[in-house]
Structure formats: structure tokens, C-alpha cells
Design a protein that fits this description.
Strand content of chain A: under 5%
Helix content of chain A: over 70%
Radius of gyration of chain A: 17 Å
Largest sheet of chain A: none
Shape of chain A: globular
Number of helices of chain A: 8
Largest interface: A-B, 28 and 29 residues
Oligomer: homotrimer
Structural class of chain A: mainly alpha
Number of strands of chain A: 0
């Protein structure tokens, strides 16, 4: 019940964020719906297809399908008012990422994959919906440029596999890993922390002059 | 026999339209061939991969492969003359979309998926070849911006599942659903109907000023 | 042993080339790592997913995963010095393409696919990592514009299936096919040969004036 509630919050946040970006690109109703769907389902779909879980998960989950359609419609109708919701959306989104990471890790574990690959699957589940959204909108994926996002997922995944040596209750492990994702992301956003840049000033200038 | 004939017409139309767009982008022979192939096979490939029909359908259908290669070659050689064919191409394309929609729905039904997901699979089969083509050509997919296209597929799909309560002969249902797709698209194009815009004038101006 | 050594060289070359392009686009550490990975694993992943080999090959091959992570890290640290290595990289890359082509053909054969589809799978394995890399970097894939690359793979594939009528030792066939890929590409680059353009001068001017 509790997990399902969180799952729905996360899906809503992903779908609305996708719809908002699609509307910025002046897409029509169909485009907005597809981008909302891809943002919410894209990461998990890629993961399922690569692992071989088919039909992919959302095809058997009508609740998910209806929530995405509902969220996209909501975003279209209330797009002027939604700016008041951005903070709640950010919070839902962060919770969604944490949950998606954990779900991705779990799917990898069930398929018997190596911990490093499981962490990759968790990160992919959480981040690649946004990557596909950005590609469909003809942008370089934002997560490849400013990525507190992905790092949080990776750290959450590492936490899970390190604690696995000390705890055996999976549910507790998943909750702790999810909390790590949430805390890392919130701290990074609040204190404006990003990965140390790998470019020095000259390189950055060169490119902006190009 | 009749269906196969329609299938071939649709494939030719998709492949040629892909080749023409690739040539506009100054791609070389290899690029033109790949874009033609992706336009014709992309939607069905995505559908098969997500549902778990593997190897994907076209890999077992050499007729399809040769028709695409032939159509792309034809488009390269006669690209100057092809403008005289554009009206026939549009008609073939519309017939192709109708058939692809029906094939997609059928594939979903065989996999035991929910009607809403089947309609999504039909629309994906018909429209996502074009989406992948546009991504490979570095454009925002045209179907997300002006989409009489996708709406026609969705309406055809709904028609199928509504009539399913009254008829039992699948072949008749498929033909009716296909005709709905064709009629909706032709009417929309002839009378220049598009979805009601979700943006008001101010929003459109704002963005064009950006 | 020998094949494994070649495989590792190819993977390193693909991963480093991906990382270099990601750094040109000012991506952060996570972006560089993902682009390196997609460049090295993308073609094979697409092939596996379309044929139905799941979980996809690299998920069971931790050596591959660690080599990509190591190569990307190396490229980030020594990006200033790497220009001295470009020639060796080009050589490794060419060897990598040859090997990937052969691996792709072999995977198609095991799945019982038609020779033409096997050649397509070989070419996809060798070239579509680069295609996905370019899409993620928001560029029109370079292989669709100047493609000595793909033609070499296709010719290597044809050689394989033609010689199949005369030889029965698969290992020898694979080595010959791989050598054809390498020689075609080297000759094309050294003598600056490209496919005959399908556009005449006027068409090229028109477009550059646009």
C-alpha cells in the first residue's frame, strides 16, 4: 500500500514534468501524451527490454497507464497554474527517482545479474525516461550535463550492495537505499553541489567561443 | 493475397518517404537505405521488442527486406521524377498506416494485452517508424506537432474494440477499423482539420519570439 | 586468447572515441561514461534485443564493463595527451569494427537468420554504437553521411557468405571476412575513397545555400 502510493506520486511527477517540457516545444496533444508516457515509462521499458522481461512491465499495469494519461491531461489543462506546484513536483520527482532506482536494482537481482549491472539498471530505470524525453525533444539529455540526478542513483545502489553484507532484510535495505538517493539529491540541490567539473576554465571558454 | 498486396504498397510508400527525407539531409547511399528501412520497419520493430516477439517480424520476412531495398534504390534513381508520384504516395502511405495499425492491434491481442495497450501498439506500429526516422535525421518528430496521423490510428483502434461487442468476425472488424483510419486521415487532410490547439495566441507568439 | 585480446583492443578504441566526443560536448563525468558505454555496447545491444538474446551479452561480461569504465576514465584524465594516440586508436577502431561485424554475423547465424539479415546484424553491431552515440549527442549520425565504415562491414559480410560455398572452416572464414573489413576501410581512408555521391553539384549548392 505505502509503496504503491509512493509509486503513483513518482509516476505523476515524471508524467507532468514530461508534459511541461513537451508543451514548451509547442507539441500538440498527442505529442504531449507521448512525451509524458516516455518520461514515466521509458527507463523501465529500456531496462525490461535489455533484461528480457517482456511484455514490458507497464503493459500489464493499467493503473500506471491511466495515471500517466490523467497526469498529462491535468498538465495540459492547468499548465498556467502548475508553476505553484513546482516545489511539490520536485519532491515527488525525487521520491520517484528513489523508487525507480530500487525497482531497477530489484529487477536486475531477480534476473541474476552482477551488482554493478544491477546498479546500472537502477540508474537506467530512474534516469533514462528523461534521456529518451530529451532525445524526442531534440535536446542533448540534461542528465549528461548536470547530473546530481544520476550520481544520487548510483550512490543509492552502492549503499544497497554494501549494506547487503550486514543486513538480510531486503525491504529495509531498499528503504535505506531509496533514502540515500533522496538525501543526496536534496542536499545537492539545496547546497548547489554538482560533480567536480572535468574541464578547466580555458576549455570551457574555447567551447563557448566556438 | 489482397492483404499482402496492400502490405507491399504500404511498405513501398513508407520506404520511399524515408528515402526522400534522407536525401534532403544529403545522406549518402547507406544513410538513405537505413532511413528507408527504419521508416518502414521501425514501428513494428519497437512493438515486437516491447511485446517480446523475437527475432522481430521483418527478420523472417525477406520479401519485406527486398521491397525496402528496392524502393530505396528506386527513390535514389528517380528522385527528380518522384514529385509526380507524390499524390499516389500519399494514398499508399495512408493505406499503409491503416494496415500497420490493424497489424499492431492484432499483435497486441495475440499477446493477450489490454485493449488500451493494443490501440497503443497499433498506433506505435503505424507512427513510430516516422518518429525514429525524424530522430535519426535530428528533427523533432513531425507526428508530435501536426498529428492527424496518430489521431486517425487511435480512432481506428477504438472503432475496432467498440465494434467487437457487436461483431465476431475479426476480418470484417479489421477492414472497418482500417477504413476508419483511412477516412479520418483523408478528411483531415482534405479539409485541413487538425487537433484543436492547446495553446492560445499569446503563448504561440511568446515562443516564436524566443 | 588471440580473439579476446583483439576484442579488448576494439572495445577500448570504441569507448575512448565515445568519451572524446562526449567531452567535446562538455558533458560531465556521468555523461562521458554513458556515451563511452553506448559507443562500445550500443550496436551489440540493439542486435541482441532485436534477435531476442536477453539479458543482452554485455550484462554477463564483467570484463567488458570494467574495460569500458577504465577506458572512459583514462580518456578523461589523459584527454590532452590522447591526440598522440589518435593513429593507434584509429587502428584499434578498425580492428574493432572488423571483429564486431564478425560477431554480429555469428549471432545472426546462431539464430538461424537469412544471410542478408546476418550481414545487416554484423553491420549494425559494428556501426550502431556510433549511431546511438551521435543521437545522444544531438548530431545526425556521421555514418549516414560519410560511410566507408558501413560499406566495409557490408563487403566483409558478403565475402563471408560467398566463401561459405567453398570453405567449411568457420574460423578461417571469420578471419578472412574480418580482414576484408580492415583492408577496405584502410584503403578507403588512405586513398580518401568514399561512395560515389548520389547528388550532383547543383543539388549540393542548393542545400548549402538554404
Amino acid at each position: 500500500m505505502f509503496f504503491q502510493f509512493i509509486d503513483i506520486l513518482g509516476t505523476i511527477a515524471f508524467a507532468i514534468s514530461g508534459a511541461l517540457i513537451a508543451m514548451k516545444k509547442q507539441m500538440d496533444l498527442f505529442g504531449v501524451l507521448i512525451i509524458a508516457f516516455v518520461t514515466a515509462a521509458g527507463g523501465g521499458t529500456l531496462r525490461d527490454v535489455m533484461i528480457g522481461v517482456e511484455p514490458v512491465s507497464w503493459m500489464r499495469n493499467m493503473t500506471f497507464v491511466y495515471i500517466v494519461i490523467g497526469s498529462a491531461t491535468f498538465a495540459v489543462i492547468f499548465r498556467k497554474q502548475i508553476s505553484y506546484l513546482l516545489k511539490s513536483l520536485f519532491l515527488f520527482d525525487t521520491i520517484g527517482i528513489a523508487l525507480y532506482t530500487v525497482v531497477g536494482i530489484e529487477t536486475g537481482l531477480v534476473a541474476g545479474l552482477h551488482p554493478v549491472v544491477c546498479i546500472a539498471m537502477g540508474t537506467m530505470t530512474a534516469c533514462f525516461g528523461g534521456v529518451l524525453r530529451d532525445i524526442l525533444c531534440n535536446e542533448i539529455p540534461v542528465v549528461f550535463r548536470k547530473e546530481i540526478y544520476a550520481t544520487a542513483c548510483i550512490l543509492g545502489g552502492f549503499t544497497y550492495f554494501i549494506l547487503l553484507h550486514f543486513f538480510s532484510d531486503k525491504n529495509i535495505l531498499f528503504i535505506i537505499a531509496g533514502l540515500v538517493v533522496i538525501v543526496v539529491r536534496l542536499v545537492a540541490v539545496i547546497f548547489k553541489i554538482s560533480l567536480p567539473s572535468i574541464y578547466n576554465k580555458e576549455e570551457l571558454q574555447e567551447d563557448s567561443e566556438e
